[in-house]
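re: that chain from earlier
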Amino acid sequence: MSEYRKARRNIEVSPGESVRIIRELQGMSQNELSKVSGIPQSTISGIERDRINLGVERAKQLGRALKCHPAALVFPGWDVENESAA
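^ sequence. v structure.
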């Protein structure tokens, strides 16, 4: 039996990139996401290009539309193991 080692993170993902990745994995266009979330397509485009701040309320709307937890969008690279106890 061989030993497995933990995968290394190769890239950092921004909140906007996480929205785009999850949207594309679900086969949705920006227009479709706009219709489902109620957020204008131009705003979604700005979020995905990191020109518009995602924000908590938009993260909730997009999380519902993409059927994922808003934290997955806001904190895509958060590593709980590297957090120190407060």
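The domain at 15-73 is CATH 1.10.260.40 (434 Repressor (Amino-terminal Domain)).
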